[in-house]
């Protein structure tokens, strides 16, 4: 479900921020990170769609079902799908690491984060 990560993080921050300053800080950092990752994925998808539309000849004739087309199509998917996969993996690893750090009572700073909420 798209954007559920942002919605859940926002709800937690909204209702728990007054309980402790560490909860407020960690939730804001998490919300900033979730929004940033979502923006990066959307930007990458726009780039991929633009390149596919304007550079579609790279794939060749899609009515010609031969192995050369299949190879090019797989190459195209891996080349453009890999960054999204890596961003999702980064999101999972950082979320787990942040949960462990927050459990220890420390502030976690996410990488590649645009700070919308300070």
TrEMBL record:
Its main location: membrane. It is found in: Membrane. It comes from the Bacteria. The keyword Transmembrane helix applies. InterPro entries: MamF_MmsF (IPR019109). It is a multi-pass membrane protein. Keywords: Membrane, Transmembrane, Transmembrane helix. The keyword Membrane applies. The chain crosses the membrane at residues 31-52, 82-103. This is DUF4870 domain-containing protein. It comes from Mojavia pulchra JT2-VF2. The lineage of its organism: Bacteria, Bacillati, Cyanobacteriota, Cyanophyceae, Nostocales.
